[in-house]
Amino acid sequence: MKFIARIVGVLAFCAGIAHAQPYPSKPVRVIVPYPSGGIVDLLARAITEKIAAGWGQPILVEGRPGADSNLGTESVAKSAPDGYTWLMTGPAVLSNPSIYTNLPWSPLRDFQGVGVAVWNLNVAVVPATLPVANLAEFVAYAKARPGQLNFGNPGTGSSNHLSTELFFQVAGIQLTNIGYKGQPPAIPDLINGQLQFKVVALGLAAPHIRSGRLRALAAFSPLRLKQLPDVPTVSEAGYPEAGLVPWYGIYVPNATPRDVVARINGEINKALASPDVQERIEKIGGLPGPVKTTDEIQAMMKSDFERWGKVVRAAGIKPPQ
């Protein structure tokens, strides 16, 4: 019995040592609920590779798409709250609960934001053949043709979709929603005029704007874009209420220990301040996120959860059939 008790004591001691190991003591997984190789995947790698180099522990980015990002998001919500599973995603984590009313997770209940990774820079574009030179002219053109114009939607509840619907609500116009599986398939239809309007990721839109096949009307960004300095922001173009810019965040389960949350938050902010990470993010078409404390991120989550919910309800956005 004494021998058994001694063995139990040794095992308990070893477990205590393992538990006391400083974070991180093993690889970290980052779940991206979108396809591998996409914009969110590339952004996640740009940030986490910098952090991993300093930690000496690998950070593995794993694409887990499905159900408009709900599958990957749910897997993180249900993961162990130990700091070894992160979620990187866009505004869908805040807007999807208003679209899918039976989700088993809630962003404000189940997640703690640990980093504002990047502002999602989008550009409102039209075919170069459309007879409008700016956003105000497009609104007048659309009002004269209610329901006759088409816009490309790369995914229900995506940042592009939400930005578009918010702008339509503010401008008081209606266009027909044409659904696509992602952004790239819609570009040819936009260029040839089958679509008359689309909010497109900067990285995808810029080459076609420079070639003259698309015309940029406004940037959905906090500031004018370095790549398109002559294009006004949507606020400068006369629609400041449509200037809610989507952002990609990094999250962990809400029960993650506070000291681990603080460590992750500090490392993300340090990575985002690095010139080489900033350069990678800008090449992908994003704007590095500002340094934010976890309390500030939670406040942003709450505010955007409410605002995107209003956009969803006003637009009558429903789950795709």
Describe the structure.
With 321 residues, this protein is of the alpha/beta class. It folds into two domains: 27-119 and 247-315, Bordetella uptake gene, domain 1 (D-Maltodextrin-Binding Protein, domain 2, 3-Layer(aba) Sandwich); 122-242, D-Maltodextrin-Binding Protein, domain 2. Helix content is 44%, strand content 19%. The chain is built from twelve helices and eleven strands. The chain has helices at residues 2-20, 39-55, 70-77, 92-99, 107-110, 135-143, 159-171, 186-191, 202-211, 258-272, 275-284, 294-315, and strands spanning 28-32, 59-63, 85-89, 111-120, 122-127, 150-153, 176-179, 198-201, 214-220, 247-253, 286-288. The strands form three sheets. Strands 2-1-3-10-4-11 form a six-stranded mixed β-sheet, with helices on both faces. The chain has a three-stranded antiparallel β-sheet with strand order 8-5-9. Helix 2 (39-55) links the parallel strand 1 (28-32) and strand 2. Helix 2 (39-55) packs antiparallel against helix 11 and helix 7 (159-171) crosses helix 12. It is globular, with a radius of gyration of 22 Å. Mean pLDDT is 91; it is low at 8-19.
How are the SSEs ordered, and which strands pair?
Elements: H1 2-20, E1 28-32, H2 39-55, E2 59-63, H3 70-77, E3 85-89, H4 92-99, H5 107-110, E4 111-120, E5 122-127, H6 135-143, E6 150-153, H7 159-171, E7 176-179, H8 186-191, E8 198-201, H9 202-211, E9 214-220, E10 247-253, H10 258-272, H11 275-284, E11 286-288, H12 294-315
Helix pairs in contact: 2-10, 2-11, 4-12, 7-12
